[in-house]
């Protein structure tokens, strides 16, 4: 597998997570509104969201499996150059195989096809964390045999859209796009 393929796989996964973190950090508010200081009185009355019921989490996990298994992620990614984002690969498709939950600790198996082939990349389990009802694929310090640097990704899934951030030890950037299914499955954006 070429360095470019690994770079792309890491980029896709990191992008999804970054968006989830940003949404979680701002509490769903626009970034401009979130940066405004809160009045002390308002802070006293801020409540944490209620924990998600197990039945709701199970439904969301099943939905995530249906959304990603056999899907193609079509989108764009960029590399950060100082304060600018440089386009690296416009409209690059990434084909996924089966996506399954492995355990109750947030570990998931994500099958990934090397672009332009029918060869599966044997990716180690990834973590899926939740920002409310939105999943974030999280990769932290993934060392790939024969490659320098540690890969990191945060990729948020919102219906049939994905976005996030990535880094490979030398570069970092962002990605976004649409999750496309060939089976004509239902719209999962609701």
Describe the structure.
With 190 residues, this protein is of the alpha+beta class. It has one domain (3-27, 54-181): Beta Barrel (Lipocalin), CATH 2.40.128. It has helices spanning 3-26, 31-34, 40-44, 54-68, and strands spanning 71-81, 84-101, 107-113, 120-121, 126-131, 134-142, 151-158, 161-167, 172-181. Strands 1-2-3-5-6-7-8-9 form an eight-stranded antiparallel barrel. It is globular, with a radius of gyration of 17 Å.
What is the gist of this entry?
By secondary structure, the chain is α+β, with helices and mostly antiparallel strands.
Integer tally of domains = 1
> What is the share of helical residues?
25-40%
Proper CATH architecture: Beta Barrel
Q: N-to-C SSE series?
A: HHHHEEEEEEEEE
Beta content: 35-45%
**Low-pLDDT windows of residues:** 1-26, 28-35, 186-190
Shape: globular
Q: How many angstroms does the end-to-end distance come to? A: 36 Å
What is the averaged pLDDT score?
Answer: 75
CATH class label? Mainly Beta
Trace the largest sheet across and list its strands. 1-2-3-5-6-7-8-9
Q: Within the CATH hierarchy, at the fold level, what is the topology? A: Lipocalin
């Amino acid at each position: 597998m070429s360095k470019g393929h690994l770079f792309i796989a890491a980029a896709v996964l990191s992008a999804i997570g970054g968006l989830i973190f940003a949404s979680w950090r701002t509490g769903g508010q626009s970034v401009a509104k979130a940066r405004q200081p809160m009045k002390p009185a308002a802070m006293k009355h801020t409540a944490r969201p209620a924990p998600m019921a197990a039945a709701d989490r199970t439904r969301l996990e099943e939905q995530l499996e249906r959304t990603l298994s056999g899907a193609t992620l079509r989108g764009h990614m960029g590399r950060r150059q100082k304060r600018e984002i440089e386009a690296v690969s416009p409209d690059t498709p990434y084909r996924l195989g089966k996506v399954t939950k492995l355990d109750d600790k947030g570990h998931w198996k994500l099958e990934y096809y090397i672009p332009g082939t029918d060869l599966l990349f044997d990716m180690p389990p990834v973590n899926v964390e939740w920002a409310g009802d939105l999943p974030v694929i999280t990769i932290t310090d993934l060392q790939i045999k024969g490659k320098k640097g540690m890969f990191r990704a945060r990729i948020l899934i919102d219906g049939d859209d994905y976005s996030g951030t990535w880094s490979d030890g030398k570069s970092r950037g962002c990605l976004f796009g649409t999750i496309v299914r060939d089976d004509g499955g239902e719209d999962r954006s609701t």
